[in-house]
Amino acid sequence: MDKASISSTEGKPIRCKAAILRKAGEPLVIEEIQVDPPQAYEVRIKILCTSLCHTDVTFSKLESGPLARFPRILGHEAVGVVESIGENVDGFKQGDVVLPVFHPQCEECKECKSPKSNWCTRYTNDFLSNTRRYGMTSRFKDSFGKDIHHFIFVSSFTEYTVVDIAHLVKISPEIPVDIAALLSCGVATGIGAAWKVADVEEGSTVAIFGLGAVGLAVAEGVRLRGAAKIIGVDLNPAKFEIGKRYGITDFVNPALCGEKKISEVIREMTGGGADYSFECIGLASLMEEAFNSTRPGSGKTVILGMEQKALPVSLGSYDLLRGRTICGTLFGGLKPKLDIPILVDRYLKKELNLDGLITHELSFEEINKAFDLLAEGNSIRCIIWMDK
Ligand code: NAD
Ligand code: ZN
Ligand code: ZN
């Protein structure tokens, strides 16, 4: 963005295009909206490109319950450039390249200061407000002057958005912006789960349920840790080809397991159970299968998938007594401000393989096609360019 365009909009509302979800399950509608200037501790950013993560698809279908809100601007995997900053904003200035991240890091609470988890206790318990600092207040208005809901503190399906600094990471402008977008959710989550949550060690056997961007990033993470056998589970055989490029050594198609449960097949393939399993789909039944695939005594299951109907998981109590562990994670246990720059650096040093994850590119006007592509399993990540 050039200096003149920055100074002409700073402190004023911006009128721009946004893709709005007005009703569950319906296509997004591109409308002109007003984006208010950032308040204290907020930054207004111009989105350069955004991609679609399965969580956007899940929320677009959510008809009711506290997490369903309309009208709403979805989108949370994106990269942008700072257009203007609110009061009390340190560390960001106009023109900075930034990643908005749904998961917060206030940098001040006990957990943010501890290496044990990424569960920022100051902000993480609240998924029901529009902005964590200001509750339900919105920075977006439609052409009738009505508020539009934000989405998980990012809302990237708009030319401009306003994000709290607890959700913003400054990154090196050297990384290609489309790759950077992937690091703002799915890919960072997968790699983080392998490194920070499971802490996979050399020679391990691993089962990954779901080979979308999240599952393939888990594969990259465990490959870099030296996993010996990486089993990919997916209904879509097209995912097996790219899976091989991500170090996946064996594949299980649940449709071809016959009478056997997936967990039985994996226990046979691993001589008693995988050391680690990761669920990257979002189905309670497969979370149970992932748990049952691991080795008694020491097996560990990490749940990354967001259950598509918020269903509970049922585990055999005796199976738990066998010493397996299971946990879930948001954003792969990563502290965004600390860990995303590390991932960017490793990508720039060519230590991180993210080839082939971007399968499609579309203009903003075509955003609904990106939903169809992902929901039908025909894309891994589709980049939506705001200026094309
Ligand atoms: P995706 O749609 O790209 O990938 C899902 C994969 O699962 C696809 O390859 C699909 O073919 C496969 N699949 C679907 N149903 C299956 C079944 N019954 N059996 C076997 N394979 C099946 O999704 P994604 O963007 O990679 O996201 C994966 C999950 O991770 C979603 O639930 C998403 O909401 C969640 N997610 C969680 C976090 C987090 O912080 N925990 C972050 C990002 C995404
Ligand atoms: Zn915190
Ligand atoms: Zn996501």
UniProtKB/TrEMBL annotation:
A Gene Ontology term for the protein's cellular component? cytosol
Q: Which reaction does it catalyse?
A: a secondary alcohol + NAD(+) = a ketone + NADH + H(+); a primary alcohol + NAD(+) = an aldehyde + NADH + H(+)
Q: Which GO terms describe its molecular function?
A: alcohol dehydrogenase (NAD+) activity; S-(hydroxymethyl)glutathione dehydrogenase [NAD(P)+] activity; zinc ion binding
Where does the Alcohol dehydrogenase-like C-terminal domain lie? 213-337
Q: Which InterPro entries match?
A: ADH-like_C (IPR013149), ADH-like_N (IPR013154), ADH_Zn_CS (IPR002328)
User: What Enzyme Commission number(s) appear in the record?
Assistant: 1.1.1.1
Q: Tell me the cofactors it needs.
A: Zn(2+)
Domain (Alcohol dehydrogenase-like N-terminal): residue spans on this chain? 41-172
Q: Can you supply a Gene Ontology BP term from the record? A: formaldehyde catabolic process
Q: Which CDD domains match?
A: alcohol_DH_plants
The alphabetical list of record keywords is:
Metal-binding, NAD, Oxidoreductase, Zinc
Name the family. Belongs to the zinc-containing alcohol dehydrogenase family. Class-III subfamily.
**What is annotated about its quaternary structure and interactions?**
Homodimer.
The protein's name is alcohol dehydrogenase
| Higher taxonomy | Eukaryota, Viridiplantae, Streptophyta, Embryophyta, Tracheophyta
